[in-house]
Amino acid sequence: MNIIISFLLLIISSNTLASAILQFPKLKCSTGTLQLNIVDVSFCPLTSNLERINFLGLTEKTVTTLNNGEELTIGLNPPDISISNLHKKFNLTVHEFFLSLYEGTLKTDNLGLIKEAFDIDKSNKMKVYKKGNVFAFT
């Protein structure tokens, strides 16, 4: 019996910095606004105050909005910039790397340092959102 309880505690404690996989959040903005979502962050400028929206480049996924004189730019960083291709050091895809980090199964002696680099701790748990085959790690 002690072995079973110890095993359950090991499973529970190894995943204390993660939460259940969630569905993508529903729309949050009200009527009369433009909604820009990045998984669990929403930007809802009033359409009457929105001065400009630019989609920069045809192949890059970048958008800039100008709202009441304040500019917001949202862009996609490739893995070589955003995570310094860390996933390749473990011979994993980006998806596999973040899923292993989320599950606490990344095989490394430096797991604590990697979580610290991504600011994952008890007060800032990693979240995973899923819609069909698309995952978002925050």
Explain briefly what this protein structure is.
By secondary structure, the protein is of the alpha+beta class. It has five helices and eight strands. The chain has a domain at 78-137.
List keywords for this structure.
138 residues; disordered N terminus; three-stranded mixed beta sheet; alpha+beta; 28% helix; three-stranded antiparallel beta sheet
Describe the structure.
Helices cover 28% and strands 25% of the residues. The protein has a domain at 78-137. Strand 7 and strand 8 form a beta hairpin. It starts with a helix and ends with a strand. By secondary structure, the chain is of the alpha+beta class. It is elongated and about 55 Å long. The chain has helices at residues 2-14, 79-82, 86-89, 94-103, 111-117; strands spanning 22-23, 36-38, 41-43, 50-56, 62-67, 70-74, 128-131, 134-137. It contains 5 helices and 8 strands, in the order H-E-E-E-E-E-E-H-H-H-H-E-E. A 3-stranded mixed β-sheet has the order 1-7-8, with helices on one face. A 3-stranded antiparallel β-sheet has the order 4-5-6, with no helix packed on it.
Number of alpha- plus pi-helical segments: 5
Morphology: elongated
- H-E order: HEEEEEEHHHHEE
Give the total of beta strands: 8
Tell me the strand percentage band. 15-25%
Low-confidence stretches: 1-17
- The secondary-structure class comes to alpha+beta
Rg from Cα: 19 Å
